[in-house]
Design a protein that fits this description.
The protein has about 180 residues and is an alpha+beta fold. The protein is built from four helices and six strands; from the N terminus they run E-H-E-E-E-H-E-E-H-H. It has two domains: about 5-90, no CATH class; about 100-175. Strands 1-3-2 form a three-stranded antiparallel sheet, with helices on one face. The mean pLDDT is about 90. Pfam families: DUF2812 (PF11193). InterPro entries: DUF2812 (IPR021359).
């Protein structure tokens, strides 16, 4: 029987709660979060447990940061960049029980992604305009058209992976402000 398996993420910027609930359901079946994977999570086989998962963001965590969560009953499971996932028995008080605290965390992430998103969108727009200009005014320059197309396609990835999280965090802040 396999000891590990992979579970895709729905995108933490958009559906953090949904992913954490999915991880909890997997734990009920004996599949527990081991670490972040590429666009998802690596799960390991174990005994079924009724647990909850919570995600927190901290750019520079120290020992006191992790001790605070441990004292509140949350076990640190894994980290990926500024994201840290904790696990606790079902019914443990949530890490952020106040809307204002959660909103501050999302605002911080929103600000972080904003500059990346704006930069990527500007470059993407310039590349798209360049491709359009080459196709319109110099249709015989196929090499330049191919090069511009490849650059635009390659640049699509950083644009998507910076803009979508920015939109997701902006939406979360908006919902928490209501």
């Amino acid at each position: 029987m396999k000891k590990t398996k992979y579970m895709t993420s729905s995108g933490l910027a958009f559906s953090e709660g949904y992913d954490m609930k999915r991880l909890a359901k997997k734990s009920l079946k004996g599949w527990h979060l081991q670490k972040f994977g590429f666009l998802g999570y690596t799960l390991e086989r174990g005994e079924p447990m009724a647990v909850e998962y919570e995600l927190d963001y901290n750019e520079q965590p120290d020992a006191d940061y992790f001790q605070l969560f441990q004292d509140a009953g949350w076990e640190h499971i894994c980290s990926g960049g500024a994201m840290h996932i904790f696990r606790a028995p079902e019914g443990t008080v949530k890490i952020y029980s106040r809307k204002a605290d959660k909103r501050d965390v999302y605002r911080q992430e929103q600000k972080k992604f904003k500059s990346y998103a704006v930069f990527c969108l500007i470059i993407f727009t310039v590349l798209a305009a360049f491709l359009w200009a080459v196709n319109t005014f110099y249709p015989d320059l196929t090499t330049l058209t191919v090069l511009a197309t490849v650059l635009l396609l390659v640049w699509t990835f950083p644009t998507v992976f910076s803009t979508f999280p920015y939109i997701g965090y902006t939406y979360k802040v908006y919902r928490l402000n209501k």
